[in-house]
Specification:
With 241 residues, this protein is an alpha+beta fold. The chain has four helices and eleven strands; from the N terminus they run E-E-E-H-E-H-E-E-E-E-E-E-H-E-H. It has helices at 46-55, 74-84, 190-201, 215-232; strands at residues 17-22, 28-33, 37-42, 69-72, 93-103, 112-119, 122-128, 146-153, 157-165, 168-175, 206-211. The strands form two sheets. Strands 8-7-6-5-11-10-9 form a seven-stranded antiparallel β-sheet. Strands 3-2-1-4 form a four-stranded mixed β-sheet, with no helix packed on it. It is globular and about 60 Å long. It starts with 16 loop residues before the first strand and ends in a 9-residue tail after the last helix.
C-alpha cells in the first residue's frame, strides 16, 4: 500500500495574497503572496480552479480582498500558440485541456504531462513550459513557450475507447496513420515537421492514451471529437457509442 507523505511548504494568510494569474480554461493558477512567495497550481480542472479562487477570496464579490488583483494570461497563451505552433496564423481553438499523455511508440512508455488542443480537424499534443508562465509576453522571443510533441487529423482515428483508470478517466485512440500537422502549410519549424515525418515513417499501428482530470472536459472532448469525425469522414468511429 502506497503512503502519501504531506510536507508543509508554507503558511500564509488569505489577506496576504497580492496577485493571482490564471491561464486558458482556468487550468493553471499562479498565486503571489507578499514577501515574494509564489505558488503554481496545475489544477487541470476548471472546477478545482474555481474552488481555489473562492478560497483565496478573489472571485466572491462579498469577500474579495481589495489589495489582491486577478489577471488572465489567456490571450497571451493563445497568441504564443499561434506563433510557436501555427506559424503566426490566426486559428480557432475548439478545446484546450491539460492531460497526461501516453503513446505506444514512446520508448520510455511514460505518462507525460501535456497540453491538448483541438483545432479544426486536428488533435495537437504540445509541451507547455509553465516555468515561463508568470512572465509570459508575446514580445519575448528568446525562448519557446509551446513546442509540438504529437499531432494527428481526427479523421485518422479509427477507434476511441473510454475507460476508468486509477487517478482519472482515460481515452484510448487508435490511429490508422500519423499525418504531419500542417494546416495551410503554416508550420515553419522544420524540426517539428521532420519529427512528424519520422513518426509517420515508422509504420505499424499507433495508439494514444489521454488521462483526464475533469469529467466536464472529457465529455466535451468526446462530443466535439465525434461531431468533427462524423462531419469529415464516412468511416465509422469504433468503440465509442
Amino acid at each position: 500500500m502506497t503512503r502519501t507523505v504531506l510536507k508543509l511548504l508554507g503558511c500564509h494568510r488569505v489577506e496576504d495574497v497580492r496577485e493571482v494569474l490564471v491561464g486558458v480554461g482556468l487550468q493553471v493558477v499562479r498565486v503571489y503572496i507578499e514577501r515574494d512567495a509564489a505558488y503554481m497550481f496545475l489544477t487541470r480542472s476548471m472546477e478545482k480552479s474555481r474552488k481555489l479562487l473562492c478560497i483565496l477570496q478573489v472571485v466572491d464579490s462579498h469577500e474579495t480582498c481589495s489589495e489582491c488583483s486577478l489577471r488572465s494570461l489567456e490571450q497571451v497563451q493563445v497568441e504564443l500558440f499561434e506563433k510557436h505552433i501555427c506559424g503566426g496564423s490566426k486559428i480557432s481553438i475548439f478545446q484546450y485541456s491539460l492531460v497526461l499523455f501516453w503513446r505506444n511508440n514512446n520508448e520510455d512508455e511514460l505518462w507525460l504531462s501535456r497540453s491538448l488542443f483541438v483545432i479544426g480537424g486536428y488533435l495537437l499534443v504540445c509541451i507547455e513550459d509553465f516555468m515561463q508562465f508568470s512572465a509570459l509576453s508575446i514580445d519575448a522571443s528568446s525562448s519557446t513557450y509551446f513546442s509540438l510533441d504529437s499531432c494527428c487529423p481526427i479523421t485518422d482515428v479509427s477507434e476511441m475507447v473510454i475507460e476508468a483508470r486509477e487517478g482519472g478517466q482515460c481515452i484510448t485512440l487508435a490511429l490508422e496513420r500519423a499525418t504531419p500537422f500542417c494546416p495551410s502549410t503554416t508550420i515553419t519549424n522544420k524540426k517539428q515537421v521532420g519529427l512528424d515525418k519520422e513518426k509517420t515513417a515508422t509504420g505499424g499501428s499507433l495508439t494514444w492514451k489521454l488521462k483526464w482530470f475533469s469529467e466536464e472536459s472529457l465529455f466535451k472532448f468526446v462530443a466535439l471529437f465525434k461531431a468533427v469525425h462524423a462531419g469529415a469522414t464516412m468511416s465509422p468511429l469504433l468503440g465509442c457509442k
